[in-house]
Amino acid sequence: MSRRTALRRLAAHEGRWLISLGRWVARQRIGVAPGDLALGYAAAQGALVYGLTFVCVVETVGVSVLLAGLPGVHAVMLVIDVYTVLTILGFQAAAVTRPHVLAADTLWLRDGARREIRIPLERIAAVRYDLRFVGATEKDGDDGVVELRVGGQTSVTVELSEPVVAVRLLGKRETVRTVRFHADDARAAVAALRARLTEAGGGAAPETGRAAAPETGGAAVRQG
């Protein structure tokens, strides 16, 4: 990928989270049409985001006091600090305003403003509650498994009968055969998805009680 393309995609990402801030204030969700079911996932990271925001605000005030006698440097640092606070809040705003969406024929999974995966319901072979905690240094995308983590965890696993192609933030394309994502109410999300699959005439069969088998990328905690 060229540097220009990468910069353009980063600028588009910047615009998305800035828009999300405005939508968050207005209590609006993006991409949720009438009849669609929004599956929120932002709650798991809320405490961390708001705690980090508080620390940054305190740091901004402290730096402003220390640099009061250097107006030029103070102005530069103030801009940087304010932008940092907005970036952190934009991260949360994007997650709140861009939930996962269960439509009539598609499961639309999103990772804030960074990436999204659209899965036709007809390609879903199985869906189950599957709580996993994943190390921050572990990478997803290996062997067709993608993890959309929130707070270092995923809670729903979707297995596909046919792969789909997902595009990362900087344009890297990957073939996806299994997706693990988080939902605030994971069991309700699984139930809703199974019901929608039944309505669509397809079918992920219930997998209640299936034994958990730890895999690379995280330890299975429980399933149902």
How would you briefly describe this protein structure?
The protein has four helices and nine strands, in the order H-E-H-H-E-E-E-E-E-E-E-H-E. It is of the alpha+beta class and 224 residues long.
State mean pLDDT (0 to 100 scale): 86
- By DSSP, the count of extended strands is 9
Shape: elongated
Order of helices and strands: HEHHEEEEEEEHE
Question: What oligomeric state do these chains adopt?
Answer: single chain
Strand order of the largest sheet: 6-8-7-5-9
Overview of this structure, please?
With 224 residues, this protein is of the alpha+beta class. It has four helices and nine strands. It has helices spanning 3-25, 43-66, 71-97, 186-199, and strands spanning 37-39, 100-102, 106-111, 115-120, 124-133, 145-148, 153-167, 173-181, 219-223. Strands 6-8-7-5-9 form a five-stranded mixed β-sheet, covered by helices on one side. The radius of gyration is 20 Å and the shape is elongated. It starts with a helix and ends with a strand.
Q: How would the blueprint of this fold be written?
A:
Blueprint: H1 3-25, E1 37-39, H2 43-66, H3 71-97, E2 100-102, E3 106-111, E4 115-120, E5 124-133, E6 145-148, E7 153-167, E8 173-181, H4 186-199, E9 219-223
Parallel strand pairs: 6-8
Antiparallel strand pairs: 1-2, 2-3, 3-4, 5-7, 5-9, 7-8
Helix pairs in contact: 1-3, 2-3
Q: What keyword list fits this structure?
A:
disordered C terminus; 9 strands; 27% strand; single chain; alpha+beta; 4 helices; elongated; 4-stranded antiparallel beta sheet; 5-stranded mixed beta sheet; 224 residues
